[in-house]
Amino acid sequence: MPNPLVDVPEHIHALLSRLHAESSAQESALSAADFANRTFDEVMQDKFIALDQDKAQFVYQLCRAINAKHVVEAGTSFGVSTIYLALAVAANTSRTGEVGRVIATEYEAAKAAKAREHWRECGEEVLATIDLREGDLRETLQSDLHDIDFLLLDIWTPMALPALKLVQPHMRHGAVVVADNTIGSAEKYKDLLDYLRDPANHFSNMTLPFHNGLEVSVYLPPKSDS
Ligand SMILES: C[S@@+](CC[C@H](N)C(=O)[O-])C[C@H]1O[C@@H](n2cnc3c(N)ncnc32)[C@H](O)[C@@H]1O
After folding, report:
1. Mutation pick for ligand 1 pocket among 76, 78, 210 (CB with most ligand atoms within 8 Å)
2. What is the pLDDT of residue 125?
3. 42-53 residue pLDDT tens
4. How far is CA 190 from the centre of its chain?
5. What is the pLDDT of residue 226?
6. pLDDT at 156 over 80
7. Domain residue spans in the chain?
8. Regarding beta strands 214-219 and 171-180, do their DSSP bridges make them parallel or antiparallel, or are they unpaired?
9. DSSP labels for the chain?
10. With a 6 A CB cut-off, is 119 part of the ligand 1 pocket?
11. Disulfide-capable partner of 221 in 75, 80, 106, 202 (CB 3.0 to 4.6 Å)?
12. According to the lineage, what is the superkingdom (predicted)?
C-alpha cells in the first residue's frame, strides 16, 4: 500500500512503525480481567490506544489536502497521531514560511512526558510544531485557539462533544473534524453524532469504512456564522 508520508526521514518511519506495533500489542493483550479490580483510567494510564496506522496516514493525507496549518488534537496519549499531524503542518508551512502549530491535549502527566520523548526522537521540526497543553482539555482548550483548520477527536467518548464545542467557534469555513471509532462506539458517541448531524450545526458528514469507522465532517456555516 502506498504511504502518503513522502519526504519523511527514515528514523521517523521506523519510530512510527515501532510505536504502532507496541500500541497494537497492548490492545490485543487487554481483556475484561484487566478492568476487574481497577478503574478505566487506572488501566489506561500506561496504554497507547494509538490511532490505527492506516487512519493516521489518512489524517496526514487530509491535512496535506486542506493545507492545514492550525490543528487541534483532542487526546494525545504517547503522541503517535500528533507526529502525523505535526509532519503535515510542518510540510504545509514550509512552502510559505508561515508559522503553524498542532495543539495537543493530554491529562496524564506520564503520558505527556513520554509523548515529548517521542517528539524529541523525531527531531526539532516535529517538536517545535507542537504546543502540548497538559491537563483536562475542558480547561486547556478554553483559550488561544485561532483559525483552526483541522480537529482530531481521538479521546474517551464523553470528552469528544465538549472538545468539539470548545473548538468549533474558532474553526474556519471548511475546517475538517475527524472522530475515531464512530461505528464501533456509535452508542457511546451518540451525543457527538447527533450534534454533528443536526443541520443547525452546519456540518456535512461521512462515515468512512475504516476498522470500527472513522467520521469525517466538514464545517460549512452560512456566511453570517463564519
Ligand atoms: C485514544 S487516546 C489518544 C491516542 C493518540 N491520539 C494517538 O494516536 O497516539 C486518548 C487519550 O486522551 C486522554 N484524555 C482523556 N480524557 C482527557 C481529558 N479530559 N483531557 C485531556 N486528555 C484526556 C487519555 O489520557 C488518553 O491518553
Report:
1. 76
2. 96
3. 999 889 999 999
4. 19
5. 54
6. yes
7. 10-225
8. antiparallel
9. ---S-TT--HHHHHHHHHHHHHHHHHHHH--GGGGTSS-HHHHHTT---PPPHHHHHHHHHHHHHTT--EEEEE--TTSHHHHHHHHHHHHHHHTTT---EEEEEES-HHHHHHHHHHHHHH-HHHHHHEEEEES-HHHHTSS---SEEEEEE-S-GGGHHHHHHHHGGGEEEEEEEEEE-TTTTTTTTHHHHHHHH-GGG-EEEEEE-STT-EEEEEE---GGG-
10. no
11. 202
12. Eukaryota
Distance of CA 79 to the CA centre of its chain: 9
84: which 3 cell numbers? 502525523
Give dist(CA 72, CA 65) in Å, integer.
17
- CA 147–ligand 1 middle distance (angstroms): 23
CA of 223 to the centre of ligand 1 (A): 34
The 10s digit of each residue's pLDDT in 89-128 is 999 999 889 999 999 999 999 999 999 999 999 999 999 9
* Mean pLDDT, range 195-206, rounded to an integer: 98
